[in-house]
Write a structure and sequence with these properties.
about 140 residues, binds 1,3,4-trihydroxy-5-OXO-cyclohexanecarboxylic acid
Length: about 140
């Protein structure tokens, strides 16, 4: 069975209540149930942390056991060098996701330090971005 890990950085545990005008009013747990139903051929693992070093450890552990990582590093996207280093170090293919269109927002969010290590990136599609990533993954795997 195909293994996909969705890894989330800081404050994404608050999805549903956090700035709903930007991030929507749906919890991620709610979406996860839907994803598992919609993609029965994929084992979806999910982990979230607010701590940069813990996100590095998650990328390492999931990056060696999962086929793909869907990574939203949240604010660390724009500041961390350790996260792109971890992404580059693991064999899993990584898809970057941001709920918001980071390029329409404050300048500090226009830099994505790990995008260059990703097979693809999605931003601005809200929670739909995670479905799009899984659709891409299942299509690619079906074509193999
Ligand atoms: C985010 C965008 C980041 O700039 C922000 O710090 C987040 C979420 C997004 O999904 O749009 O926490 O990664």
């Amino acid at each position: 069975m195909l293994n996909v890990s969705i890894l989330h950085g800081p404050n994404l545990n608050l999805l549903g209540t956090r700035q709903p005008d930007i991030y929507g009013d749906r919890s991620f747990e709610d979406l996860l149930t839907e994803l598992q139903t919609e993609f029965p051929s994929v084992k979806i693992n999910y982990a979230q942390t607010n701590v940069e070093g813990d996100l590095v450890s998650l990328i390492q552990s999931h990056g060696f056991k999962s086929d793909y990582l869907i990574l939203n590093a949240a604010a660390y996207t724009h500041t961390s060098v350790a996260i792109p280093d971890a992404v580059a170090a693991v064999p899993a293919q990584v898809i970057g996701v941001h709920l918001s269109n980071i390029y329409q927002r404050e300048e500090v969010r226009h830099v994505d330090l790990f995008a260059k290590h990703c097979v693809a990136c999605l931003f601005g599609f809200g929670l739909e971005g995670y479905k799009m990533a899984l659709r891409y993954i299942t299509n690619v795997e079906d074509d193999k």
